[in-house]
Description:
This protein is an alpha/beta fold. The protein has 3 domains: 73-136 and 335-508, Rossmann fold (3-Layer(aba) Sandwich); 139-329, Dimethylsulfoxide Reductase, domain 2 (3-Layer(aba) Sandwich); 594-706, Barwin-like endoglucanases. Helix content is 29%, strand content 18%. It contains 23 helices and 30 strands. The chain has a 7-stranded mixed β-sheet with strand order 5-4-18-17-16-6-7, covered by helices on one side. Strands 24-26-25-30-23-27 form a 6-stranded mixed β-sheet. It has a 5-stranded parallel β-sheet with strand order 10-9-8-12-13, with helices on both faces. A hairpin with a 4-residue loop joins β19 and β20 (459-463). It binds iron/sulfur cluster (SF4).
Amino acid sequence: MQNTATPTHCPYCALQCGMNLTPAPDGTVVVSERADFPVNRGALCGKGRTSAEVLARNVRLTSPLVRDEAGKLVPASWDEALDRIATGLGRTRAEHGPDAVGVFGGGGLTNEKAYTLGKFARVVLGTSQIDYNGRFCMSSAAAAGIKAFGLDRGLPFPLEDIPKSGCVILVGSNLAETMPPSLRFFTELKENGGTLIVIDPRRTKTAEQADLHLAPRPGTDLALALGLLHLVIAEGRVDEEYVKERTAGWEDARAAAMAHWPEYVERITGVSVPQLREVVQMFCEPESAMVLTARGPEQQSKGTDTVGAWINLCLATGRAGRPRSGYGCLTGQGNGQGGREHGQKADQLPGYRKLDDPAARAHVAEVWGVDPDSLPGPGRSAYELLDALGTDIRSLLLMASNPVVSAPRAAHIEERIRSLDFLAVCDVVLSETAELADVVLPVTQWAEETGTTTNLEGRVLLRRRAITPPDGIRSDLEVLHELAARLGVEKGFPTDPEEVFEELRRASAGGAADYSGITYRRLAEENGVFWPCPAAVEAADADEDALPGGEAPAVHPGTPRLFLDRFATPDGRARFVPVSHRATAEEPDEEYPVLLTTGRVVAQYQSGAQTRRVAELNAAAPGPFVELHPRLAARLGAAEGDPVAVVSRRGRAVAPARITHAIRPDTVFMPFHWPGEGRANTLTNPALDPTSRMPEFKACAVRLEAVER
Length: 709
Ligand code: SF4
């Protein structure tokens, strides 16, 4: 490798910020500004800036590990480790059938890896039991988007449209901490005269930037959206012409909203009627407006309906599918978008095709060279899959995920993982889940391999290999190639990412997420391409915004903006979905009188498996805490920093008190990045949304107990 800067993208969140990587003479890698990528224009948060530290040998895994007879993980050769995995998975399949083998992926995997993992599960193992941690990220927004628009792409417009809008309602997103470089779009929005409304039970760093901050009770965002729609109707602000021309199902949605009187909504949410009216005025007055949701409204047992209610508001006011307007989801994980498009989701095949659609099965089976009837059907969702470990599912292959920390009801999930007959984990570090494995494989990191990701805008990006991995490390694609061969499938699992991408293009062709017109060369030259981007161009597909001047493109330009002419439904109309308020699965009561909500801090990423190993990030955010209101602290007799026990029906977590007026008095907050005594997910409720199967991370009932020092 040359000592020159390689332009690539951050390994962490869904912004996929551009960065340059340069190998230094001392063997380290320097991360530097890359100003040509429009999403971050050179800015990086602390996680991205320090990301190269996880490449160091003393932080990462450098040898396969196998569990010895004494029960310890010890170094082993690649052949021994791969043989053990093939034997472990193969034995389970032979003794209990293919569905007794599970596969669990991650939203950090590149498109090529997610695609290959899905193919490996269905073609090599023959199992239906595959899902991934992205189910815990954006699945409710995806389900609601498909219901309403016929298509789910996180943002149907580029981030650069945000500053040009008249008003943005940000629901349950603390992007100032989760993706700090994105804050500039909202600062520019305000500089341009637009308004920002933030809805969050906590006065977060993002809420501090808002023109108006509403702090509803956790779990009541659905009622809030219904109350706003009620007022839109009552105040005569419905865009009747748009509703008539571009939507279907209005009357039922209208009737449902009219049943949610503002005073009733005020009682449910704690948001006053005057504040509701203020939101309606701010949202409806400008020519353009957006609603953007994140995990707050989505990680609920009614997440799909909640997002549906916000989409209804956008439809009734004529916002969706119009310039600088509409609904979007701020996907969280690095490749959370691409990860859900290419087949590691329990119910989907590449190209965002449905696994139970005969035409989709036939298309993908042809690309894969297998009989469509040999492909298994849909499997369990992520939590249900993890909950079945040790019972129906006896062996598990896990890549790029750490459910011991990140799954809801985590102590129970840890117990299920411990009860497996066999567990193999591929990761870059020895995560808390890898510590429980029979075999651990050390795999390459983002800087050491080429591959594509798809960011939260639906922009497909090329991550380039900048350095050579240390000896003893292999890529996930090599692992799957080797395992396929050992399990009797010699062909169809290439190790070259571009070769995989070429197959993915064919598999996705004609699907909702069509990548067939995208090549590595284009990605390198164009700094990313928005899907859908079919190989065959029809004049009507040409995007005027992408090609100023209107000349006929030689290739499809990609689709930065969706739905401007029609939605992706059979008749081109968006669908209103009639929804009504319902309570969280676990409301506070005498025994558990307080609501717990969970989330993130700026210096840690997801389960913290990587970022907890970076000194600067650890110094900034060394451990969990319980954020609570002074009134609640006084009742408990707790002072700042005192250990507080938070107890739910699923367990107990202890962390220092952080006392602040920035949270509702009926709610406590814990970040979820840490294992052990302060593990927030010990407490969370796995009640699932009936459509998306999203667990209710954002609201459960707890009680607080003082802890003796
Ligand atoms: Fe990386 Fe996200 Fe930070 Fe950008 S905001 S540097 S993508 S973690």
